[in-house]
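Loading example: each entry is read as two labelled lines plus one structure line.
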Amino acid sequence: METPRDEKLAADLRALRPAPRPEFATELDERAAAGFPRRSRWRWTPFERLRAVQPRRLLIPAGGVAVIAIAVTTAVVAISSGGGGSSLDLSMGRSDSAAKPAHKRHPARYSAGATTLPVAPAAASAGAASEAEVEVKPFSREIKPQVHNRAVERNAELVLGADPADVADDSAKVFEAVHAHAGIVMRSSTREGEPGVAGARFELLVPSAKLGDTLAALSQIDEVRSRHEATDDITAPTVQTGELLQDSKARIDSLLAQLEGAETESEREAVEDELAAERRHRSRLRAQLQHLERRADYSRVLVRIETGASHDSSSGGTWGIDDAMGDAGHILAVAAAVAVVALAILGPIAIVALLAWLTHRAWVRRERRRILS
Amino acid sequence: MEQALVAEAKEAPRTADLAFDRLYRSSRDDVYAYVASLLRDAPAAEEVTAAAFERAYRKRNRFDPERGEPRAWLFGIARNAALDELRRRGRQAELTAEPADLDSLGAEQAAERSERRLAVSAALERLALGERELIALKFFAGLENREIARVLGISESNAGTKLHRAMTKLREACDGNA
């Protein structure tokens, strides 16, 4: 219950109530009528501006930006990756692009730079054959059969797509390309006829040092439908055979010394038999070593010229539902991968930002309490 | 009126604009008085008052009537703006409140009231900021204890107790001045 003294104090307090200047009140009324347009001198920081925007209004542009970013990144990744091995073959097999050489349609894939290509297992090879996808430098002079004294055997298979009318010309160009790079055409066969029937097949031996250049020249002949390369490290058998050859030579030298010192006929005959056997053994080893060295020095290349639809195209040459499903699945997989990566990047950033915001908020509240106390 | 404001705030944006306009007209001078009593700097009080209304206008669609009255919500925004201003400045400016209009009173009566109000004003100066804030919310802004509690984030009974203590302190300070 208030006493008269309290009432008087309350009245005095109300009388001391600060009143706004009429000019300020008028100005504020005008601003209120205009919907409070922003004025820079009123200290609106970017953070305050952001906070003033309704979350729903922020959500739409933020979502749009995120979707665009994911779409762009997906496109970039899909283009730069070339769609992987199987997709590479599929896209090359489309009939609508058969007329143009691959290097013209896909300059990024067939110029300088590394391309990931499927590698077929090496046939009848010794040592460790690489069957996984490996990154190679295609069609360049950087392919070296023996890197750091290692003996590496290389095999390649190239499938070209051509019109039936072009098979003969393309075959001639294959011969030219092989001879231009000091290669050897081991076997060849050419068949004329309808699309799908006409074609050619070449088994080549190409100096491994010129494999890249040769493949580059071959791939310019017509559309490249597929290309496979295999490597096989044959260093171990090469080194082992070389050592056995050295041992054999030393054994022969030893036997020759024994032959000179032989005193009886029977003793000499025994040494000569042994020497003959050892020489045969050395000949076999030398042939074996030469064979291994030839495998390292020369690469086997199989070139096929096909006509008609690509064998890799499951829809018979035209781009159909299966292709569309495959492409859509690939794009979705890439998009999902990009989204996961984006989440992995943005997640921690969002957590740090949230912590920073919470810390800032707590600090502001603490400061406000401190001022009041 | 409070119920009408609450009901209107729940309506469409156009209705929210009308409700805010009504809130502005009913609270403009109260908010200024409250902010000015905290800052004790008329130009700064004008700036902070305008900023508070601007912030409230931008947030008007986010106002949740179930969490309190519109006036309490508005004074909460004004309070944060004023405290942020104090935090920025790191100091409290001198009080520049205009003296009450005493011209209409008789000379003797006016002199007596003037002397008494000067004492009250001086006593108010000596109170802590938190106590001065309570008195400003009650007598300058005209808020009920329930609304004061909402602005300060405390219970209504706690707000009443604190206000009573502040008034007692003010009275003692006035007696000391007299």
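Residues 99-307 of chain A form one domain.
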